[in-house]
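for the writeup, i need someone to sanity check this before i put it in the appendix. the sequnce is what the collaborator sent (i think, or maybe the updated version? ugh). structure was predicted straight from it, no edits. if anything looks off just tell me and ill rerun, i have time this weekend
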Amino acid sequence: MYSSLFKHPEAHMRIACTLARRKTGLTANDLRKHEKLIGSGLTKTLKEFEQCGLMRRYRDFTRSQNNALYQLVDPFTLFHLEFIEPEKVGSWASCYGTLGYHAWSGLAFELVCLHHVGGIKREIGIAGSRLRPVHGGAAHPPSGLRSIC
């Protein structure tokens, strides 16, 4: 997927792996330390990630705007990195119902809700309110595809 989205997907894949380990996200400075990316390279990569909808930039109430968190929000990437990449499952059936699956599905549900806050507010009749989402801390690749981590 990343190869079809980005000309040079290697940095994106490394960042996705790093962000997947921290469900609440990391700051740009934390990513720089982990990925040894500097300056505009990281900024450009994060912007591309955000524009594709794979990651979100947000600020919780304890942080300044300049110290925003970057969070991986693509359920497919999170599933791939959690179950497929480390070869934890042989098939979907062997994964379904496990504790890991329930943790992933809960996170995926939260992310779907996060993507649709406006519609949810409209449907439950609170669209005019100024409520904003609050973040509360809430098998190997097929042949021919390379591992992304």
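Residues 2-123 form a domain with the Arc Repressor Mutant, subunit A fold (CATH 1.10.10.10). The mean pLDDT is 78.
thx in advance!!
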